[in-house]
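ping. complex inputs:
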Amino acid sequence: MTTNEAELQALMVASLDGDPAAHRKLFDRLSGRLRAYYKGRLEHIGRSASEAEDLVQEALIAIHLRRHTYDAAELFTPWAYAIAQYKLIDHLRRTRASLPDVPIDDAEEVMAQDDHVATESAYDLHRLLDQLPDRMRRLIRYVKLDGLSVAETASRCGMTESAVKVNVHRGLRALAALIAPKKAT
Amino acid sequence: MLNNNVEQVDRRQVARTVSVALVIAFAIALAAAFFILGIRADLKETGAWTFLILKLGFAAAIAGPTSIYLIRVARPGGERKTSVVVAALPLIVVVILAAVSLVFTPATHWNEMILGEQWLECLLSIPIIAIAPFAVVVWAVRRMAPTDLVRTGAFAGLAAGAMSAAGYAFHCTDDSLPFVALWYGGTIALCTLAGAILGPRLLRW
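pong. complex structure:
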């Protein structure tokens, strides 16, 4: 941000006097510089550069709203830099603090759902399916697991619809037979 | 949103708002000391005047530079143009003077010189009277853009403490340097510490 201090300062002084064109031009220049500054800083400390965009907006709004604190007798760059740096530190402090600040309600959510059962039953189902003949397994997977219609499955496998139905029916019966003896023991 | 709103800006706003706030803060401190505590009755004696002026001088030596620094820290990056040492110098000087005066006094008088008659009243009054002036100064500085909130808060506390001490000086009848150093200096330092701690919470923008 040091290259054209004189130009930026002239734009700032003009915009303080109420010149909208200078104000727009100044903010165009500033947003590019601020984006580069924040991306560099964030990458340097190992944070995602995607946060830069929010920071650019925040800094631009701050520079606009607090422009009455700029002293025209002083350099513009250090003033803008102080605001940009302040917003960066504020952002980092806030986002670091937000980790332990997760609301207490969320504690129950940690225990609310158990993915374990779903994962385990999916595993069991695949072990059972593996014991079926190839074609039958494929048909059951299409119709019962992937949610395809009988007609879609038929055209995909090059079979008639009734053949699909019969095979799925037989397959399910075979699966039931595989489970039955296990339940008995 | 930004571009449609570029009315001319008053460039002297910072200095004016902060100075007005400082004057109001001082008026509040004086009024609180006068109306709640009252002025010391023995003001006709020359000795009393000497010490009153000394105490006021001490408070002014702190409040003067600190007020200028407050106007500076109200602007982004302004903290670089302030010196903690200069702001704290009157405190250091009064402690040295107090130590010297103790050295030249018999140890039997030390207790009386240090504790005076009203050390507890002083200890409580200065921080309590400082609360309202501190709030006024913080209110003004918040409208600016301080970027070093700890230092800004500390200066606000220091200024409020010094103003409060100036008001309290009109009431206080304990006239000894060690008393001023310990109870005035100590309470002002306490106000500064409180300001430094509260600064980041109160001044964030």
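Chain B has seven helices and no strands.
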